Amino acid sequence: MPACHRGRTTLWLAIAFASLELGLITGGAEAECPDTKCGSVDIPYPFGIVGQDSCATMPHFKLHCNNSRPFLGDFEVLNISLQLGQLRVLNRISSFCYNTTSQEMEQHKWNKTLSAPFRFSDTGNKFTVIGCRTLAYITDRDARYLSGCVSACQRDGVTGATNGSCSGIGCCQTTIPKDLHHYQVSFDKGLNTSDSMYNATRCSYAVLMDSSNFNFSTNFVTSSEFNTTNGGQAPMVLDWAIRTPNNCDEAKNNHTSYACKSDNSKCVNSSNGPGYICNCKNGYQGNPYRQDGCQGPPTADLKHGPQMPELRRPPVVDLVRMPPAADLKRGTLGGRVT
């Protein structure tokens, strides 16, 4: 092979290997994928939009954007937090109502199974029950987990219920365990509102919901306000994480799949199920899942610390001269004794 062809071949091989090495370092084009929006909701990487130039790290992180509203399956997404590893969504409310025509109780129950990266947040949600003669259960798919909440009222009606208080009278709340990715609701038919004494409270409700901003109103018991305020839905929190590997120590062993791409990012073990999320280091802000996503102070300032003003020696000044020893003895200091 002529020398010129050998040189050209060597050059192309060098370029090819350099490109491959760069791809392995950056994690491919996905690492540089820009954040996007659906309506007014920010969709930050590693999430993406189905049908667009989505760069989500895995299919379960792709959202549908319908009429400028993002959806994760059946859940409408209200916002996404990278730092907390959470989604705030709308969850359907289950109802148990007395049908005055058939004179029977009718259930409209809701159940849901989450895809791999997601868990129902045990710290952000509570199973909430509204009603006067209501016992509702929450269970997982295999019934290995079962919990319930009873909401009752005094015999003379809902007068015992108090605005802002969810302690068992008209309203009940209970916590859920960690690592829950399926739940379903059921009502105990032994407790219902078919008794004529409770005609004022025709329906009971149960839902897993965000408890942080929930404020009970007695109107929830005597009307359909709780169910209709958000179209039969209530806000709920989902925890998400990169579920494999199981933790940060395992994740850092595979640089190609490691999701914390920014040099100024850090790995945080998931607090709800296996896996990890990424955060920016202290002093930095941005998206830790992208190259150069965490921005902070200039590099020079980080290396050398804050710039201190230059210290200069003060100029020499002619200080007040000491008087001669003879004047000190006479009790004078640069003047006469009067």
SSE layout:
Elements: H1 3-26, E1 36-38, E2 41-43, E3 48-49, E4 62-66, E5 69-72, E6 75-81, E7 86-92, E8 94-99, E9 104-108, E10 111-113, E11 118-120, E12 125-130, E13 133-139, E14 146-152, E15 171-174, E16 182-187, E17 203-210, H2 219-222, H3 225-228, E18 233-240, H4 248-251, E19 265-269, E20 276-280, E21 285-286, E22 294-295, H5 299-304, H6 325-329
Parallel strand pairs: 3-4
Antiparallel strand pairs: 1-2, 4-5, 5-6, 6-7, 7-18, 8-9, 8-17, 10-16, 11-18, 12-15, 12-17, 13-14, 13-16, 19-20, 21-22
Membrane topology: Single-pass membrane protein
Signal peptide: 1-31
Domain Wall-associated receptor kinase galacturonan-binding: 33-90
Please tell me about this protein's structure.
The protein is an alpha+beta fold and 338 residues long. The chain folds into 3 domains: 19-81, no CATH class; 86-240, no CATH class; 246-294, no CATH class. It is built from 6 helices and 22 strands. Strands 3-4-5-6-7-18-11 form a 7-stranded mixed beta sheet, with no helix packed on it. A 5-stranded antiparallel beta sheet has the order 9-8-17-12-15. The longest helix is centred in the N-terminal third of the chain and has 24 residues, at 3-26. The protein is elongated, with a radius of gyration of 33 Å. The relative contact order is 0.13. Mean pLDDT is 81; it is low at 5-31 and 300-338.
